[in-house]
């Protein structure tokens, strides 16, 4: 199944390494996406003295709440699953509008992190945004290790919004990129 998103989806797919692909999320992806979400939050629960099953139940509840929030506030979003040789390894959630591309989430399973895939996706996203004169925006927790990547790629903090930092990357009409290539 191909990822929707026209030029944006094609650009993201083209940025992936050989054997990697994007496709639209389907209902059957729910258990994988819940496990993926838990993997992104597990470390912060390390100091919490709960049994593992309580932590997993808490994270499943948080995933369900996040999913409901996204569906309510981002109608028409692109819900994409990242695969390697047909095996689900991550997700990319985007909400494009005429003036902005909101990065709702990019996440990979732990064994697929730190391989440059997130950087490649963000650079492809930036190129598409630049071509359309759009801002790329996202929210990130101040302790998220991806914050350094976002800054290297030209994202600037606009404001704190509750616990999150709101970052934007302004379009570069000349196509000048920032950060590693």
Kindly describe this structure.
The chain is α+β, with helices and mostly antiparallel strands. It is 37% helix and 27% strand. β4, α4 and β5 form a beta-alpha-beta unit. The longest helix is centred in the middle third of the chain and has 22 residues, at 52-73. It is globular.
Secondary structure layout plus pairing:
Blueprint: H1 6-15, E1 20-24, H2 30-41, H3 52-73, E2 78-84, E3 87-96, E4 100-108, H4 117-132, E5 135-140, H5 146-152, E6 156-161, E7 164-169
Parallel strand pairs: 4-5
Antiparallel strand pairs: 1-2, 2-3, 3-4, 5-7, 6-7
Summarize the structure.
The chain is about 35% helix and about 25% strand. It has about 180 residues and is α+β, with helices and mostly antiparallel strands.
Point out poorly predicted stretches. Answer: none
How much of the sequence is in beta strands?
Answer: 25-35%
**What structural class is derived from the secondary structure elements?**
alpha+beta
Shape: globular
Largest sheet: 7 strands, mixed
Topology, number of strands: 7
How much helical structure, as a percent, in the residues? 25-40%
Strand order of the largest sheet: 1-2-3-4-5-7-6
Quaternary state of this entry equals single chain
Order of helices and strands: HEHHEEEHEHEE
In round numbers, the mean pLDDT is: 92
Distance N terminus to C terminus?
29 Å
Radius of gyration: 16 Å
What is the tally of helical segments?
A: 5
């Amino acid at each position: 199944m191909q990822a929707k998103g026209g030029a944006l989806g094609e650009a993201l797919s083209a940025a992936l390494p050989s054997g990697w692909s994007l496709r639209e999320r389907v209902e059957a992806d729910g258990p994988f996406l819940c496990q993926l979400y838990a993997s992104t939050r597990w470390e912060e629960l390390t100091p919490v003295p709960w049994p593992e099953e309580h932590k997993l139940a808490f994270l499943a509840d948080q995933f369900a709440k996040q999913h409901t929030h996204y569906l309510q506030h981002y109608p028409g979003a692109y819900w994409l699953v990242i695969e390697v040789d047909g095996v689900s390894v991550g997700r990319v959630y985007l909400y494009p509008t005429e003036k902005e591309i909101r990065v709702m989430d990019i996440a990979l399973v732990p064994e697929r992190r730190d391989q440059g895939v997130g950087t490649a996706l963000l650079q492809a996203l930036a190129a598409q945004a630049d071509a359309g004169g759009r801002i790329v925006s996202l929210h990130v927790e101040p302790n998220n290790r991806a914050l350094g990547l976002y800054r290297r790629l030209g994202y600037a903090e606009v404001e704190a919004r509750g616990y999150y930092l709101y970052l934007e990357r302004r379009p570069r009409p000349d196509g000048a990129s920032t950060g590693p290539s």
